[in-house]
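Field log, afternoon session.

UNIT: design team B
ACTIVITY: writing a sequence onto a fixed backbone
BACKBONE:
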C-alpha cells in the first residue's frame, strides 16, 4: 500500500469528474488510496467517506471514496457548468498543490476543468490547467507528456494553430523541452540513460531541405549540441516511421514538433488509457487524457480507465 495517498482535485463538477472518481475508487479501493478534493454531495451515489486530512485517506478508502470536503456555492446540474463554482474549482486545485508540496500527498492528479466556466465565473487568466499549475509552482517552463504502456510522447508546440507551429518552433523552445524531458525520464520514470527520438517538422524530416529547412536550421543543431553533452538522441526523424512497434522499442520517449503529430499516435495506440503528465514541476502531476465530457455527465456511462491509469502512474512517479 502506498505510504502517502494521491490527491485528486475535482475539476469541473458538472462534468464526468465526480462519477469517474467514484468508479476509480471502486476499481482501486484501498490498494491505491487517493482522496477527492471536492464537495461530497457532488459524488453521484456510492459510499463516500469525508476525511479531515490526507492522512486519513488510506483507512477511509477501505469503506468508500475518501473526500476532503471543499465548499461550493450554488446548485450542481450535470452537463451544465455553473460559473458560481469557478472560484471553488480553482481553490481545489490550489489546495491540491498545497497538500502535495507539504508532503501530505505523494502526487497530484487533476480531473478535467472547463476553461470557459472558469473564465466566466472567476476571470481565469491562464490558457489551461498546466499553465496554472506552473504559475502556482513558480516554474517558468513545463512540458506536456502523454504516456501509456505503449508510448510516451511530448509535443514541443502545443495548443496553437498548425499554421503557427513552424514560427513557434525555436531552438530555445526545443532545447528546453528536450532538457526537461530528459531530466524527467531519469527522475520520475527511473530511466538511467534515456533514449529520446525526435521527429522532424516536415514530411520525410524535410528530405534534405526539399520539403522544408527547419530540420537543417533549427532541429539538427540543437540535437547535435545536446548529443555533445551526452544525451542519447535520435533525429530528426521522419514522423511517419517513428511509431510502429519496432521503432517504439528503440526509444523511451518521442518528441514531436506539434500537437497532432504527438497525440494521434498515442490516441490510436491506447485511446482509453493515455495519461497527461506535466514535466518540470517540483511535484508529480498527472491527469486523464480527456475533457469534461459534459454531453454524457450524470449518465453513469463515463469510462474511468484514463483516470485509473493517471492515478496509478502518479503513484509510481511519486515513489509510493
Amino acid at each position: 500500500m502506498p505510504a502517502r495517498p494521491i490527491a485528486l482535485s475535482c475539476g469541473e463538477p458538472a462534468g464526468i469528474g465526480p462519477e469517474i472518481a467514484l468508479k476509480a475508487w471502486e476499481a482501486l479501493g484501498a490498494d491505491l488510496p487517493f482522496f477527492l478534493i471536492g464537495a461530497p454531495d457532488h459524488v453521484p451515489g456510492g459510499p463516500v467517506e469525508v476525511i479531515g486530512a490526507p492522512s486519513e485517506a488510506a483507512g477511509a478508502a477501505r469503506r468508500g471514496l475518501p473526500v476532503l470536503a471543499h465548499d461550493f456555492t450554488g446548485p450542481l446540474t450535470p452537463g451544465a457548468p455553473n460559473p458560481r463554482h469557478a472560484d471553488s474549482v480553482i481553490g481545489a486545485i490550489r489546495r491540491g498543490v498545497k497538500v502535495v508540496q507539504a508532503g501530505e500527498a505523494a502526487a497530484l492528479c487533476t480531473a478535467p476543468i472547463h476553461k470557459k466556466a472558469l473564465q466566466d465565473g472567476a476571470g481565469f487568466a491562464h490558457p489551461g490547467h498546466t499553465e496554472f499549475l506552473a504559475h502556482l509552482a513558480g516554474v517558468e517552463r513545463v512540458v506536456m507528456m502523454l504516456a501509456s504502456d505503449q508510448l510516451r510522447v511530448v509535443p514541443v508546440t502545443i495548443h496553437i494553430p498548425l499554421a503557427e507551429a513552424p514560427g513557434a518552433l525555436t531552438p530555445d523552445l526545443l532545447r528546453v523541452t528536450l532538457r526537461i524531458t530528459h531530466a524527467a525520464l531519469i527522475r520520475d520514470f527511473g530511466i538511467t540513460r534515456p533514449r529520446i527520438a525526435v521527429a522532424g517538422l516536415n514530411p520525410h524530416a524535410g528530405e534534405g531541405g526539399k520539403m522544408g529547412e527547419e530540420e537543417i536550421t533549427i532541429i539538427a543543431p540543437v540535437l547535435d549540441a545536446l548529443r555533445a553533452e551526452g544525451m542519447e538522441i535520435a533525429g530528426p526523424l521522419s514522423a511517419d516511421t517513428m511509431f510502429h512497434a519496432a521503432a517504439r522499442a528503440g526509444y523511451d520517449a518521442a518528441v514531436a514538433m506539434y500537437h497532432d503529430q504527438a497525440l494521434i499516435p498515442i490516441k490510436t495506440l491506447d485511446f482509453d488509457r493515455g495519461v497527461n503528465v506535466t514535466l518540470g514541476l517540483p511535484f508529480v502531476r498527472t491527469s486523464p487524457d480527456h475533457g469534461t465530457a459534459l454531453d454524457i455527465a450524470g449518465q453513469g456511462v463515463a469510462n474511468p480507465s484514463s483516470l485509473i491509469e493517471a492515478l496509478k502512474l502518479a503513484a509510481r512517479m511519486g515513489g509510493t
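LOG NOTE: The first helix runs from residue 17 to 28.
NEXT ACTIVITY: expression trials, pending approval
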